[in-house]
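Propose amino acids for all 179 sites.
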């Protein structure tokens, strides 16, 4: 029984690695309308983070800095995550994206199709599944902290703390003219 469990874990790990490689090869950004807006014209947004990654203070700062923005939330659940889940968040697991990149989670599919004014990525390190989902969003402006392999419309370098990142992002968007 223990040997079977260990074998299954190894097989699952190999499968996830193969799936990640497959998604990485399909990593092309979808066609979308890009637009950089002044902070006060941003009305809709979506924030992405990985559960257990310490981003909770960043979420609270988003509520403070972007009070007028209707912000949807998407949380990636690592394998074997056992934490609390709340109703107003779309949760995404590795199984929600098929081998060929097909989105199998209806809630996630609808989030990706929506042309939000702003997508905020609070993840601190690259993850093939996260990167694949972010690239497939129709958001008009994608922002995040610098990390390997991450491509966004606005990348704030040298920041790894979500609270500092959101503060700097709010300042930057307040200074931006519309493009």
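Proposal:
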């Amino acid at each position: 029984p223990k040997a079977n469990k260990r074998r299954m874990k190894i097989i699952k790990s190999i499968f996830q690695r193969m799936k990640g490689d497959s998604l990485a090869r399909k990593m092309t950004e979808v066609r979308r309308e890009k637009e950089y807006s002044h902070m006060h014209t941003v009305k809709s947004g979506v924030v992405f983070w990985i559960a257990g990654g310490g981003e909770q203070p960043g979420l609270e700062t988003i509520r403070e800095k972007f009070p007028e923005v209707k912000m949807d939330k998407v949380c990636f659940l690592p394998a074997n995550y056992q934490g609390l889940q709340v109703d107003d968040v779309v949760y995404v697991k590795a199984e929600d994206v098929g081998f060929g990149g097909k989105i199998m989670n209806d809630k996630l599919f609808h989030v990706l199709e929506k042309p939000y004014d702003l997508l905020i990525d609070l993840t601190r390190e690259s993850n093939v599944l996260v990167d694949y989902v972010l690239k497939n969003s129709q958001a008009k402006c994608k922002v995040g902290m610098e990390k390997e392999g991450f491509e966004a419309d606005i990348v704030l370098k040298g920041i790894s703390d979500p609270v500092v990142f959101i503060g700097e992002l709010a300042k930057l968007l307040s200074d931006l003219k519309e493009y």
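The chain has a mean pLDDT of 81. DSSP finds five helices and six strands in the chain.
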